[in-house]
Amino acid sequence: MRGDGERGLAMIAVLATILIVTTIGVSVVGLMSTDMLHASVQNAVARSFYLAQSGLEEAKIQVGAAAEPQSYATPSRGVAAPYGGGRFTYWVDAGPATGCGPGLKTLEALGEVPFLRASISSRVRACGVPGTPVATALFGVSRVELQGSSRMYLAPAAVGAPGGGGSLGSFTEVHFADPEVRLNALSETEVDTLTLRDVGAVGDYALFGFPARPIYDPNPETDPAPWVLAAFGELIKAQPVGSALSNRCGTAHACVTAQGLLGDITTVPALRGAVNGRTSDAAGMSHVYVNRIREAVMPLLSLDPDAYLNQAADNQGNAAIDKLSGLPNKKDSVYTPLEFYQIVAYLADHPGQALHGGLYIAGTLELPQSLDLGGTAGDVTLAVGGDLILDKNARLTNRHDLTSVAGRETPGIVVLGLPAADQAPLVICGGARASGTGRLVLCGGPRQRLTVDGLVYTADGMVVGPGAVVDQIGAMYHNNRGTANPSFASRDATVALRFDPLALSAFGRGLAILSWQQLK
Asked: Which domain holds residue 108?
């Protein structure tokens, strides 16, 4: 009997063990099933997000390929297409795609993935500027160089506008020549002011939306990445689509260099770092502030001189000023340099009058005196078919009506150059030679100021001389005609460029995304 009792107890223990193991097994299977369900849901969510991104890219392609990118829009129901086991639907300036602001395109895309008897979706929205494939505040095809004690601020045209602070880029090199060069150095130890045409004297920090001087440690030895960096744009090392331009660093993309160092600088801390025995690879540019340094592939851009010549040839809106300036037979706004000098002299004596529309100067224009082209809210594009030179202390003002999209999109200055270089180059300020290749030269001086709205474009680069001030709302793009000239050089000058991406729509193709967000 005792053996039977022990066998019974053993059977109970076995049954209890089996029950426990079965319970654990069922729980594990349940957990595994739940985990697999969660994993499937996460997979579907990720797939729907990438489908939405694909829809956004398709919308971007369609806008960029349109004959009129500025006016392209989808039907209010959107455009749907199957893709990757699901589908995407996109809208451009229609349906739910709203809110980016005047002149910008609003793109929205929905990605949907079937899951069980329902679907899982993600939605994304982007703001883009039509008519250009890039969104860089200042870009040079060849070298961009800041020298001496130059100050440069690349700020947004309006605080909180899509895209944020402006970026600086090149296809060959961005060079910081001297340790006192300042780029976005916001009132490091005391308030630094700028005098701008629309706000008067203002603390430089206000351009970036700070209500008071931001307090941060400017010393890169103690703080190589100060918190203010997030307010700024980037240094873009670019490479042309399908090709490369040689540079002295030997890199496929452009390089960033500083002072006497020829090596390519790859990070912001290395750019700002102190030069000493412990950090010999640092560049010592303690007054240079950018969000990051990155590589990008971009198209080469250019403007068609004939388009601006034809625009001026059709412009009869300046006939009254032409007549009063001694040009009674003018029927268009295409001028020789001598004819335009007559207009400059007339406007100097009659400051309340202004020119209108597209102007084309057939040759090199050297301005020995100050000139205001369009008043405080004009619509002038000054196109020069040679070089444009501002003699020492001469001022040039070309403001637009920035309350309208058209005013923001109208180019300010385009310097297009002659078809072939001049056989007798003109010796200008500092001993430099201008041969009509399409250069914009500010000779400098304590009273020199270029005040301009819209795009500033040159065929062979821009030089800002000592003491000169550039006050611009818009963007710059500087080409190169194969000469040794830098695409942009600032020499002991101040450049305040408030970046408006609509200025780049003058190039008339592509779509540049300024910002995007996931809505769901």
From this structure: 35-130
